[in-house]
Amino acid sequence: MLEVKQVSKLYENDRGVHNIDFSMQRGEIVGFLGPNGAGKTTTMRMITGYLNPTRGQIWVDGLSMADHPKQARRKIGYLPETPPLYPEMTVQSYLRFIANLRDVPAREQKLRVGEAIDKLGLQGREKQVIRSLSKGYKQRLGLAQAILHKPDLLILDEPTSGLDPKQIIEIRQLIHELGENHTVLLSTHILPEINAICNRVLIINQGRVVLDERPENLGRTMGETFEVSLEVKGPRERIITELRGLEAVAAVKELGGAEAAPTEPAAASADAAAETAEAASVKLLVTSADRSDIREALFFRLAQAGYPILEMKRESLSLEDIFLKLTTDEPTAAAPSDNEEEVAADA
């Protein structure tokens, strides 16, 4: 549905984006992340035809943005960070105006406008002047104009900005529904939003793509080890000894403390007997030796030893952790070529 091939947009001092390369299939909802100034807005403006790239090619449903810009734009719905609204118009007159701009057939305009108003919860505000709308309703209206012509590709820049929690949930549900028949590129600073609605994550830093992966594969991509947090009922030393006896376990650490050192097997003392009687619990972090899933092995070993597991949870890097790691470190990409150092005038 969308192909971005080796696209660069260069400004003075080598700023801009460099060799952006990714593609999207129909029905995908891709989260587009990056710190301020990373190049997200520049990339989206090139995809939508508002900016011409210095070099590279962009195709929308097989149409080149360079060779067939008008036809390609018809397949795109775009919501910029600041919605393109005319404050002196009413909601209904504005949507009809957009329908004309988008070449929606006259016989379908009333139906399309009504559908957009219903989907975005703008009922009862059709005659209201846009300048009198709250920020949340202006955001809704901006999204309504983006979907009015039923585009194949939606480019959304901060679509839930300024919305209250109820509205955010409604917009997320709408994006989910749109993703069933459309391709959605979603830029947002709300990282939990990516986890909630996106099936792919694209992270850009300093003008270059540093990650393109599905959310469930992020940990493996980052070389993450397999770790499990446990709360087990029983004596601390014996539980640690049991866990360290597994070949699949590389380390056992008591949560809140240093790595737990196993004790030598010994006859049960009065203190140990008292500890067992009290049936206290211990919280541990267990690391796999080879990044494999060790939860089943932990369960059977502790069940055989007679120590019940009160809680077991896999620990993994959050999207926030991954985002900070990728956007804080210095870029590892090769230095720009001589061609990349050329300065292009803004379109």
Automatic annotation (TrEMBL):
It holds the Pfam family ABC_tran. SUPFAM superfamilies: P-loop containing nucleoside triphosphate hydrolases. One of its GO terms (molecular function) is ATP binding. Residues 2-231 form the ABC transporter domain. Keywords: ATP-binding, Nucleotide-binding, Transport. PANTHER family: ABC TRANSPORTER, ATP-BINDING PROTEIN. Belongs to the ABC transporter superfamily. This is ATP-binding cassette domain-containing protein. The lineage of its organism: Bacteria, Bacillati, Bacillota, Bacilli, Bacillales.
